[in-house]
Amino acid sequence: MDSNNSLICKRVKKIVRKFDTNDPFEIAKESNIKVKYFKDVTTLLGMYTAIERNRFIYLNSNMEEYMMRMVLSHELGHDTLHRHLTKSNPFYEYELFDITSQAEYEANIFASHLLIDDDEVIELINNNYTDVEIASFLNVNVNLLIFKMNEMNRYGANYKLRHAPKGNFFKKIKP
Length: 175
Fold this sequence. Notes:
mainly alpha, Arc Repressor Mutant, subunit A, three-stranded mixed beta sheet, about 50% helix
C-alpha cells in the first residue's frame, strides 16, 4: 500500500502543478468535469460518474463550503484513480471516507494531499497546536487531517496521533 500511497501523492502534486492551484473547484473546471448540485437527497454528500467520456461530480448543495471542498476533492480522487471502475457500472457507488474499501481509502489520501499542505501542518505542529486546532485552522475535518498526518508519518515524520481517522466520519455529517 505504501508504494501506491506515494504514487497518489505524486499524482496530486502533478495536478497541482498542472493547474497551478489546489482548489478542487478550479481543478474540476479545468479538467472538464461537470460539477452538478442536488438538494433533495438528505444523506448522499457526493457522487462521481463517467458516461461516454463525460465526467460528472454531484454534490449535495446543503453542505457548508468547507465540506463541499472536501467532498469534491474526494470525488476528484475517484476521477483520477478509479475512473476505470465506472466502465462496467457508470453509477458505481462510493461510500465517502470508508477506510475498509481500497478505493475509498485512496480517495481519502488523494483529498488529504490536495487540500492540506505539509508545510502548514509542520508549522502548526511546531507551534504546539492540537490536531483539532490544526484542522480548524486549515478548514478541514479532523479525520482528513489525520489521514494527512498518517501519510506524513509514512514519509518519515513521527507525529503521535491521538486517534485513528474514523472511517465513517462522513456518514455522521448532516448536509
